[in-house]
Amino acid sequence: MEAVLDLRGVEKQYPGHRAVGNISLQVPRGAFFSLLGPSGCGKTTTLRIVAGFETPTAGEVWLNGERIDHLPPYRRNVNTVFQSYALFPHLSVRGNIEFGLRRRHSNGTQNGFAEKVRHVLQQVRLDGKEARLPSQLSGGERQRVALARALVLAPDVLLLDEPLSALDPLLRKQVRAELKDLQRRTGVTFLFVTHDQEEALSLSDQMAVMNAGEIEQIGSPQELYQRPRTRFVASFLGAMNWIQDAGVRPEATRIFPDMLQTPNGTGRHGVVTGATFLGSFWHIDVKLDDGSSVISQTPAQNAGAAAFSPGDRVRVSWADDDLLRFVS
Questions:
Q1: Fold classification of 3-233 (topology level)
Q2: 133, 182 in Cβ contact below 8 A?
Q3: Counting CB atoms within 10 angstroms of each CB, which of 115, 150, 231, 269 has the fewest?
Q4: How many CB atoms lie within 10 A of CB 222?
């Protein structure tokens, strides 16, 4: 698939601190691409370098086959949606959406503004609310106004810096679904920054996991979760049981009463230290006889899982194919 955005050996060095170290990645046209990592890993700095708010110490940024790292932000056909939305409180929904159009066309014709605003309002499903002020909107609606203001300028890439973090958990899930639907309907390339693993896994076509200013792995959500290359990626994308030089996901384990023989005689003996019902599954903590601990996640419909209580002797097993091994 053709890359619309290409970062080549990009670095950002501050006095005494390297924020981004020699990262390279290609973002396919029309993709929902996420940069995922903990606070301070360099993901927002990378986004700001693409936007033109930061100048890279080294490396190149290419957009649509043109090198843009030397261009000011207003000459790059990208737009940014910030965590705070940054809406003008005194302007209506229409006024906020038109603001960027009027600045871009300040020396030329402003014909067609109404049609562009109408079209983008339909895209973000805010028809009929163009006269309202931001204070009259819900948090999710304000987020959609910020998206509309960026989309109306037809960017090659829409940059989103933790845009859902200000929302409460229930609204966050709702807006997350709307955001993915919007990206699919518009076909605009999204470059999305988040520290939330569930957001990245549920939204992304492709994602890059970052750590300490570097990219640990790039791939689809399924590939990174099921075949992580490093221990960091494995642990950051979900719970992991560490078995000597390998790892196994909690949902890949099976738990049996100690007196029962497990398939092929595999498994480790231990004692249940906790059993928690979490709706769709049971979360069972086990302290193995060798002193290590493992977590087992068993579907709630498995009636046997409800029988385990702290203090029970059990055997935990997993298939060899479910063991994950890492390059670092």
A1: Rossmann fold (3.40.50)
A2: no
A3: 115
A4: 9
155, 77 Cβ separation under 8 angstroms: yes
Q: Confirm if 318 and 254 have CB atoms less than 8 A apart.
A: yes
Mean residue pLDDT across the chain: 89
- In the sheet that holds 268-277, the strands lie side by side as 253-257, 313-318, 268-277, 281-288, 293-299
Q: What is the DSSP string of 199-234?
A: HHHHH-SEEEEEETTEEEEEE-HHHHHHS-SSHHHH
Supply the angle between the helices 113-123 and 93-104 in degrees, to the nearest 10. 130
Q: Please identify, in words, the CATH class of the domain defined by 239-325.
A: mainly beta
Name the pTM for this structure: 0.88
Residues 197-234 have pLDDT tens digits of 999 999 999 999 999 999 999 999 999 999 999 999 99
Half-sphere exposure of residue 202: CA atoms within 13 angstroms, side-chain side: 15
The label of the residue with tokens 């990009």 reads: 10
Phi, psi of 187 (to 5 degrees): 75, 5
Measured CA to CA, the distance from residue 193 to residue 324 in angstroms comes to 27
